[in-house]
Amino acid sequence: MIPELESVVGALPTESTQQAVGYPTLFLLVALGSLVPVIPTGALVSSAAVVALHQSSPFSLLFVFLVASGAAFLGDVCLYWLGQRGVRSNHGSKWLEALTRRAAPERLAQAQEKLEEHGGTVLILSRLVPAGRIPVMLACLLGKMPLKTFARGDVPACLAWAATYQLIGILGGSLFPEPWQGVVAAVALTVVISGAPAVWRRLRARFGHGTG
């Protein structure tokens, strides 16, 4: 049995190989998830943090943080630039239409109000609140915020977002001896965090309608 286990372990990719493949993959998926908001990027960052926690390199967690925040920033800026093209165009664009479809009217109204009150600092909160990024981005687009202004506000937003989800991964990974157990815990936690606001809105709407 022991020789079989040793052969399996020997067949696994080395830590350096995992990093060489993992960091570019993480960057690509987070950037793509920021551009096309269907990929659970928070869960990706938390999972990568769990894996990095169990690696021997002291800089693994730092690399995950830099890769995730950089990819999120790139995706946000590209999406905002594409949205700006739609705002300037007389016929709009598919990107602007997609953003509009994903932003509920009441969430957009709240985002526009917060943007007027707090300016670009609202971008930080939008990245940390589940489903808050798109309404705030759309509010910035409709408010004709310049790309440079948006980018300046998005830098600390992406840094705070990456740090938050990395912390979730670290907490999940530190509770379990095996990396895969920490990954499962981190993904489950991020799914709960991401889905809680939607569940709360549905319950409030149902009970509110029932009492009305």
TrEMBL record:
It is a multi-pass membrane protein. GO terms for cellular component: plasma membrane. It is found in: Cell membrane. Residues 54-169 form the VTT domain. Keywords: Cell membrane, Membrane, Transmembrane, Transmembrane helix. The chain crosses the membrane at residues 26-53, 60-82, 155-176, 182-200. It holds the Pfam family VTT_dom. InterPro entries: DedA-like, VTT_dom. Belongs to the DedA family. This is DedA family protein.
